[in-house]
Specification:
611 residues; 25 helices; eight-stranded mixed β-sheet; Glucose Oxidase, domain 1; PTS_EI; binds magnesium ion; binds phosphoenolpyruvate; TIM Barrel; Enzyme I, Chain A, domain 2; globular; transferase; 3 domains; alpha/beta; 45% helix
């Protein structure tokens, strides 16, 4: 075992235990009472929630652990004007309707601004001002006079403005998305259909959507969203990743989710992927009891990750910003294995300055004094577009200039980030290590490591998420201090299956024997040059797969903090030799399902009974 992966400070045995363990959240319990549940205190009432909806259980994919119960809030899709909308009879009356629609939009944005904080509040207030722009109403009036319908006139006026904003560039060009959002909301208002996006709601609820954009998920109000369900998405979609990081139970790929009527109570199980619509209250109670039994079993263990024979495997957190860092820092884990820095800037319209970045990074490092924090430099492009790091449209963005390739074309962005990281690392006591995303060759690794060291940062690493880099990990890792397997992208590229396509979930399954073979090759290469190899893809948080990964030679596991306790338990019940045998059994299987079944059958039942 190399030292770099075992030198993190061990938390004291009495460190606070992971609070994200899968229990029904207090907010969910509150919701239960709101929803008319008669036995919120745990009785066995057995009455269905009084909604008139039929009780029904459906199966999706659980991506963020825990259970929740609450009323559905449907996220409405963008609204477009109807095709061939007829001209209006009375242009003056129609103009009054259009004016009223824009006013409705402004008022609802202002109302929402009162429910959020700081930056989000400023953004919403500024967007409300766009809706009150007199020029926009006037432009719509011209379209009405030219013979277009109400919704079409709004849409055409907005597009005229958008073209002007785009040609002005700079600040104006950056407001185009907000302008179109106002337009879509005004079209919805004039048509009398629900406004697009997350509606205003005050009661703790379960958000249901076709899918959520990363920025939309990141700005959800954690205190009111007790669960997330999407009809699309997949195990490694960013909705799934963000939900797990935020500790919100989530299920993706739930057929017919968007047709569940708003307000109907649902119970979701983010581990099994089961969703029950209008559940019997006995089921909610049973779910809650099972979750609390599991939580107490997990709470018995604490401290550094190790197998039952003492082989150390660091248990680390995946985080996406200061709020996550503060929450994860208070938990019983050994540090951060992946700080996705691009998540901080998902809605930024211009590149952050060194000072702005340093301030954020200080906030992330501070909770981890004496512990490691592995920072990934901006992984912009493809599924994580950043407005200020856009190199223009590409035919195949996932295979294009993303990750480190984008940094090579915009070294200014990389240098300012490294400078800010170095400042923040000096100002705090965290053991900061920096790694690059989407590295494919040894030359790229060397180029990155040089820049990291030139900025005074002592440890450089690379994500191993491109099969080419995995197969040649010996050469790639010679250039740096450590590697971290990004199994989300590694599965995507090994199986040639777009991770954004939920329908390809079976191919994207990290249990695919071919993916395990590539992981094995990457670990073998790392061992020959004595470099630690962690995993920071979602597979690290699957307790059975975590055992296989350790058996293949992985030295640390980084995951959403809510998943750490069950992985710690899995390790504690198996020896390193057990893990190696499980890895052999998985690789000897012909299919992903066979691999999982073989490992589940051979793992210790104390674990499998619990998961
Ligand atoms: C991965 O690809 O496995 C990974 C951890 O990075 P991301 O999911 O952010 O692409
Ligand atoms: Mg990746």
């Amino acid at each position: 075992m190399t030292t770099a992966d075992t030198d993190a400070a061990t938390p004291s045995p009495d460190a606070p235990h992971a609070s994200a363990s899968p229990t029904v959240s207090p907010t969910a319990a509150r919701t239960e009472a709101h929803s008319g549940g008669s036995d919120g205190a745990g009785g066995s009432g057995g009455a269905a929630a009084p909604t008139g909806a039929q009780t029904e259980t459906r199966q999706g994919i659980g991506v963020s652990p825990g259970t929740a119960f609450g009323p559905v809030v449907q996220v409405a899709p963008p609204v477009r004007p109807p095709k061939n909308e007829p001209a209006v009879d009375d242009a003056d009356a129609a103009l009054a309707d259009v004016k009223a629609a824009f006013e409705t939009v402004a008022v609802s944005l202002e109302q929402r601004a009162t429910l959020v904080e700081d930056t989000a509040q400023q953004i919403l207030k500024a967007t409300a001002l766009i809706a009150r722009d007199k020029g926009l109403v006037k432009a719509a009036g011209k379209e009405l006079a030219a013979g277009h319908g109400r919704a079409t006139s709004i849409d055409r006026a907005v597009e005229t403005y958008a073209a002007q904003f785009e040609s002005l560039g700079g600040y104006f060009a950056e407001r185009v998305a907000d302008l179109r959002d106002v337009g879509s909301r005004a079209v919805a208002a004039v048509l009398g259909v629900p406004a697009p996006g997350v509606p205003v709601f005050t009661e703790p609820s379960i958000i249901v959507a076709e899918d959520l954009a990363p920025a939309e998920t990141a700005t959800l109000d954690r205190s009111r969203v007790v669960g997330i369900i999407t009809e699309a998405g997949g195990r490694t979609s960013h909705t799934a990743i963000l939900a797990a990081q935020m500790g919100i139970p989530a299920v993706v790929q739930l057929a017919g989710a968007t047709s569940i009527p708003a307000g109907v109570p649902v119970a979701i199980d983010g581990d099994s992927g089961e969703v029950t619509i209008a559940p019997d209250m006995a089921l909610v109670t049973a779910q809650r009891e099972r979750a609390s039994r599991r939580a107490s079993a997990l709470a018995e263990l604490s401290g550094a990750g190790r197998t039952s024979d003492g082989h150390a495997v660091a248990l680390l957190a995946n985080i996406g910003g200061v709020e996550d860092a503060v929450a994860a820092g208070a938990q019983d884990l050994e540090g951060v294995g992946l700080f996705r820095t691009e998540f901080v800037f998902l809605s930024a319209t211009k590149a952050p300055t060194v000072d702005e970045q340093a301030e954020i990074y200080r906030g992330v490092f501070a909770p981890f004094e004496g512990r490691r924090v592995v920072v990934r430099t901006l992984d912009a492009g493809a599924d994580k577009p950043l407005k200020f790091a856009d190199l223009g449209p590409e035919e195949n963005p996932a295979l294009g200039r993303r990750g480190l390739r984008l940094s090579a074309e915009r070294p200014d962005l990389l240098d300012s980030q490294l400078e800010a990281l170095a400042v923040a690392a000096r100002d705090t006591g965290a053991d900061v290590r920096v790694m690059a995303p989407m590295v494919a060759t040894a030359e790229e690794a060397a180029w990155f490591a040089r820049r990291v060291r030139e900025n005074g940062l002592p440890k450089a690493g690379v994500m191993i998420e491109v099969p080419g880099a995995a197969l040649r990990s010996r050469d790639v890792l010679t250039e740096v201090d450590f590697g971290s397997l990004g199994t989300n992208d590694l599965a995507q590229y090994t199986m040639a299956a777009d991770r954004m396509q939920g329908a390809l979930s079976d191919l994207l399954d990290p249990w695919q024997p071919a993916v395990l073979d590539v992981v094995a090759a990457a670990c073998a290469g790392a061992a020959t040059v004595d470099r630690p190899m962690g995993v920071c893809g979602e597979s690290a948080g699957d307790p059975l797969l975590a055992l296989v990964l350790v058996g293949l030679g992985v030295t640390s596991l980084s995951m959403a903090p809510s998943k750490v306790p069950v992985v710690r338990l899995a390790l504690s019940l198996h020896t390193l030799a057990d893990c190696q045998k499980l890895a052999e059994a998985a690789r000897a299987s012909r299919t992903a399902v066979d691999a999982l079944t073989a490992v589940r059958d051979a793992a210790i039942s104390e674990l499998t009974d619990l998961i």
